[in-house]
Design a protein that fits this description.
- The chain is of the alpha+beta class.
- The protein folds into 2 domains: about 1-95; about 110-340, 2-Layer Sandwich (BirA Bifunctional Protein, domain 2).
- The protein is about 40% helix and about 20% strand.
- It is built from 11 helices and 9 strands.
- The longest helix is centred in the first third of the chain and has 38 residues, at about 55-95.
- The N and C termini lie far apart (about 90 Å).
- The structure holds 3,4-dihydroxyphenylalanine.
- 3,4-dihydroxyphenylalanine (DAH) binds next to strand 8 and strand 9.
Length: about 350
């Protein structure tokens, strides 16, 4: 019995000696296996208990239990300490500075043409217009016939218009949307229609085969030229500033009568003449007029009851004026150095 007791205490001493040097959790685990495991030293000693008498057995059993639980709790203490240390170390090693700015993904910006389109549409939406859209690939009936551009009209010439077939083409203006809306809706009609248009023009500093227009249409009872002028004046002031003036020049469009071209006082000089307006003092930005009675009639609207005005704004020209852009090609080349200026 004495011998077993001694062995137990020796094991405990050896265990504590080794435990003091433990630095990592795997070392702690190795010690646990060696001393407390199923094939460990303590178990080996306890196997010898079979040789003891019935009186001795509970006494030694008690000692053995005390030694075991003492060793286990010491080991637990060391494991806790090591885990805490290891935790602290990881926290320090993997520290991240959450105040550093992140890697922002590259952000795009709205194209200057579309910024201007949005601005113009907003102005008209505030006047009660809604947005309408139509196809860029169009039938010639909508693009020409029903706008009073009969066969043989110079605008139908292949030199101006991209034809896909005899009857299908790329719309050279946004005016066909007028027809598409009128044939489906009875007045009052109040729409603006932004979109791309196509003409077979050579690319130079003021022409592009693709460009943008915003068509406007207002049809109701008693709509007059005075309403047209008032609306356009308001539009010009909102877009270019309160001092902006407009000027109407008589013109001809087959789909309006009377028709006019509308200039606005130069945003560069206010009308006195400068390089931007080529000393004219005025810049042409749109065509307009009173919708021709036959155009109304062809779309199912009674010209005896209703009248209307329409206009078509050139977006590129307006954007170039708004931002002082001197070459239309800049708007289509997608050079980020140019486009970033408008973010
Ligand atoms: N479609 C014309 C053009 O491309 C612009 C225009 C003029 C539109 C008069 C209209 C209008 O709606 O009434 O030059």
């Amino acid at each position: 019995m004495i011998q077993i007791k001694e062995s137990l205490l020796q094991i405990k001493d050896a265990f504590e000696g080794q435990l003091n040097n433990v630095k990592t959790s795997s070392e702690a685990e190795a010690i646990r296996v060696r001393f407390l495991g199923k094939k460990g030293e303590l178990t080996a000693v306890l196997r010898g208990m079979g040789t003891l008498s019935t009186e001795e057995r509970p006494v030694v059993g008690q000692i053995a239990n005390d030694v075991r639980s003492d060793m286990e709790s010491k080991l637990q203490g060391v494991i806790h300490r090591i885990e805490a240390e290891e935790n602290d170390r990881t926290l320090v090693e993997q520290k991240i500075d959450i105040t550093l700015p992140g890697n922002a993904p590259p952000m795009g910006g709205r194209h200057p043409l579309y910024k201007v389109i949005d601005e113009i549409c907003d102005i008209f939406m505030n006047l009660g217009y809604s947005i309408a859209e139509g196809p860029e690939i169009e039938f010639d009936s909508y693009a020409f016939e029903r706008l009073r551009l009969p066969e043989g009209h110079p605008a139908r010439d292949e030199q101006d218009t991209f034809y896909i077939t005899d009857k299908i083409l790329l719309r050279p203006q946004t005016s066909p949307v007028q027809v598409r809306v009128m044939e489906k809706t009875q007045p009052p009609i109040k729409i603006v229609c932004p979109g791309k248009v196509y003409r077979s023009d050579a690319l130079d500093s003021t022409h592009s085969p693709i460009f943008h227009q915003i068509e406007g249409l207002f049809v109701d009872q008693h709509v007059t030229m005075g309403d047209l002028i008032g609306s356009l004046r308001l539009f010009a002031r909102k877009l270019f500033g309160e001092d902006t003036k407009i000027r109407l020049r008589p013109h001809h469009f087959p789909f309006t009568e009377p028709s006019c071209e509308v200039d606005i006082s130069c945003w560069g000089c206010g009308g006195t003449g400068c390089r931007i307006c080529k000393n004219e003092g005025w810049i042409e930005v749109l065509g307009a007029g009173m919708v021709h009675p036959e155009v109304l009639k062809m779309s199912g609207i009674d010209p005896e009851i209703y009248s209307g005005f329409a206009f078509g704004i050139g977006v590129e020209r307006t954007a170039m004026g708004r931002y002082g852009i001197e070459d239309i090609r800049l708007l289509f080349e997608n050079d980020l150095r140019f486009l970033r200026q408008f973010r």
